[in-house]
Specification:
Nucleoside Triphosphate Pyrophosphohydrolase; alpha+beta; 8-stranded mixed beta sheet
């Protein structure tokens, strides 16, 4: 599958939906619906699903379409970084995190996610990176446009505790990082970059 197809479909769908939000002329409404249908057909062809399934998935994005926000906590104990196994992705390893919640600040979101997934209480102290998911080799591609925010989080307390979403919690030094990473959530290059931020705290935040 060419990942560009999903990118084109995502952008077409966003343009159509944003157009429908503001369109007054019935002919424009009809054209935007036609563009949206083409985008859904592209999604379906690229993902081997039905147009109806794609439409049902994307209908949860009402109003003006904007990127989703995924937050990740970068937590160190000595020189080892905190990882969790995600049940939803075949128990692969990742940095604790997830979607930012409406009503939470970004820092509150990442602190909550780290606690829920690992059992550790933390305090977000620095933004290390803001990445556009499409540009960093995440697999599989997503039908949504996602910004990933990596926060350095100070360890305050708690203990390793499995959660509803996680089956294991552990700290790994850089030469111990598991190879079975959840690539939809974090990539080896991003993990390496977070260790670089740990060694060089003077680095500014990365961004796309």
């Amino acid at each position: 599958m060419d990942p560009r197809v999903l990118d084109w479909a995502m952008r077409l769908d966003a343009l159509a939906q944003n157009g429908l939000l503001f369109a007054v002329n019935p002919y424009d409404v009809e054209r935007y619906h036609a563009i949206q249908r083409i985008a859904h057909e592209m999604f379906a062809a690229a993902t081997h699903t039905s147009v109806e399934q794609v439409a049902a998935l994307l209908c949860y994005e009402p109003g003006y379409v904007t990127p989703k926000i995924d937050v990740r906590g970068v937590v160190f104990r000595d020189d080892a970084m905190l990882f969790v196994r995600e049940r939803a992705d075949h128990n692969r390893w990742t940095l604790p995190g997830g979607w930012a919640d409406v009503g939470d600040t970004p820092s509150q979101s990442v602190e909550r996610e780290v606690l829920e997934e690992s059992g550790y209480r933390t305090r977000a102290v620095k933004v290390l990176a803001i990445y556009d998911r499409r540009k960093h080799g995440h697999e599989p591609p997503s039908p949504f446009h996602i910004y990933k925010i990596f926060f350095r989080c100070e360890l305050l307390g708690g203990e390793a505790t499995e959660g509803i979403e996680t089956s294991e919690v552990a700290f790994f030094r850089e030469d111990e990082v598991p190879t079975d990473l959840s690539l939809g959530r974090v990539t080896p290059a991003q993990v390496a970059r977070m260790f670089e931020h740990y060694r060089r705290p003077e680095l500014p935040a990365d961004f796309d």
